[in-house]
UniProtKB/TrEMBL annotation:
Gene Ontology BP terms: proteolysis; regulation of apoptotic process; regulation of inflammatory response
Domain called CARD: residue spans: 29-114
This protein's name: CARD domain-containing protein
Origin: domain of life: Eukaryota
Gene3D superfamilies linked to this entry: Death Domain, Fas
Entry's Gene Ontology cellular component terms: AIM2 inflammasome complex; IPAF inflammasome complex; NLRP3 inflammasome complex
GO MF annotation list: cysteine-type endopeptidase activity
Any matching Pfam family: CARD
PROSITE patterns in the cross-refs: CARD (PS50209)
Length: 124
């Protein structure tokens, strides 16, 4: 009751919104997966992995697994996007944000620049 009097929103709708936003982010990554694997460059993959490691989305072992244990660029890209999707909303948002900074042209080509405008703004 005290929350209602103070004007604080109940937690349930916000949690449902976050779940929906997280599902949308993972859905966007799933939608772009094939084209991402085909188009992303090796240096962008390495930069994305570094960014995700710095943000503690990936452990050092996961970072090494994506970069060192995968022989081809396509295998690195597949491993990267699949691992991120498996980690959920925070990881998906971090990857998309990093992609927008590292390769705006690729994001535009993949349709990420307009389709996710404002999706992650309220996410913690």
């Amino acid at each position: 009751m005290r929350r209602e009097r103070m004007g604080v929103l109940p937690l349930r709708p916000l949690c449902l919104w976050n779940m929906a936003a997280g599902a949308k982010l993972r859905g966007e990554l799933r939608r772009i997966r094939s084209e991402f694997v085909e188009r992303v460059s090796g240096p962008v993959i390495k930069g994305l992995v570094d960014d995700l490691w710095q943000q503690k989305v990936f452990s050092t072992e996961e970072k090494d697994y994506v970069i060192e244990d995968q022989k081809s660029k396509a295998d690195q890209a597949r491993r990267l996007i699949d691992m991120v999707m498996g980690k959920g909303e925070r990881a998906s948002q971090a990857m998309i944000d990093s992609m927008k900074k590292r390769d705006e042209h690729l994001c535009s080509t993949l349709g990420l620049m307009s389709s996710l405008a404002g999706v992650g703004e309220l996410l913690p």
